Amino acid sequence: MRERWLSLIANQTPAGLLIGGDIAESGSSLDWLRQLAYSTSCPIYFVLGNHDFYDQSIRITRQNVVRLCREHEHLHYLTDCGSIPLRDATSHQVAAYLIGEDAWGDGTCGNFEKSFVKLADFSRILDFKTLSQEKRKDLLIELGRLSAERLTTKLESVPESTERVIILTHVPPFVEACWYEGKTADEHWSPFFVCGQMGVVLRKFAEMRPRCQVVVLCGHTHHQGVTQPLENLIVHTGQSVIGHPSIVGTLIIDNQEIAIDTYSDPI
Predict the structure, then answer these.
(1) How far is CA 164 from CA 48, 98, 160, 253, in A?
(2) 155 to each of 127, 176, 198, 199, 218, how far by Cα in Å?
């Protein structure tokens, strides 16, 4: 399975690869990323999903991933990076800026207290295992707040003249982007599948910069859909089938093709 996916990427010969999280589970995500780095010469831009943190703490997982990226120049963990200029291959002028953030379902949308949803995250991510329901919500809100703060800092670094910004994240930033079987999330699911605080940041940025097209690429929900909250803000949610990672689309930037795997899911 892994070899087939790696071969698929190699045959695409893209200018870059975007991976939107849930690469594998816990420590095996590092093995996947390492194999990717050895299998392709193009830059690999990625964020982590909730599955990538299983059986470890959030801090330790991120530290291990950052350390791996220091060893492989092709790997770029976007949560640990600033805004990245994507340049035209011929003119070398900046065609867009790429920004990434893991994000979390931060409990700020829907009805957390009355939700019947029981995530495996709460038993498999060490940060949550010993917490009460109330404390879990507090941690989700804090994780969402930190994601929103990092995103704000990166967006503020984008020059005023920029006409296009691409946001790669794992968790949908709006309820309208949280798709499942053709419908969007209800009050039970959205606390865990929407990062509402990031949505606030994105909407504010798009409103302040009406000449800049903001394209958000996310996953997490296993189902695909497109929503456009504002004229210059569009969100593509990628589809996945567990155990069958694939390239779900391509992004063309000044005639350069970038393959997108918005949701790998564990093997």
Answers:
(1) 23, 9, 11, 10
(2) 28, 22, 12, 13, 17
Query: 97: burial class by Cβ within 10 Å (0-12, 13-18, 19+)?
Result: buried
Spacing of C-alpha 255 from chain mean position:
24
Q: Examine residue 240 and state whether it is found in any structural domain, yes or no.
A: yes
In sequence order, the β-bridge partners of residue 45 are 18, 76
- Please determine, for residue 33, whether its predicted confidence score (pLDDT) is greater than 50: yes
Q: What range defines the domain where residue 167 resides?
A: 2-261
Q: Are 180 and 172 in contact (CB under 8 A)?
A: no
Confidence of residue 42 (pLDDT cuts 50, 70, 90): confident
In a domain, 186, yes or no: yes
Q: Map residue 70 onto helix, strand or coil.
A: helix
**Domains of the chain: total:** 1
Tell me: pLDDT of 101 over 70: yes
Q: Token pair of 98, please? A: 């790429």
Has residue 266 been placed in a domain?
A: no
End-to-end CA separation in angstroms for the chain: 8
Q: Which distant-in-sequence residues (6+ apart) come within 8 Å of 203 by Cβ?
A: 229, 230, 233
Angle at 122 between CA 246 and CA 26, to 5 degrees: 45
CATH of the domain at 171: 3.60.21
The pTM of this model reads 0.89
DSSP character at residue 157: T
Burial grade of 240 (CB within 10 A; 0-12, 13-18, 19 or more): buried
3-state secondary structure 10-36: HHHCCCEEEECCCCCCCCHHHHHHHHH
267 within domain boundaries = no
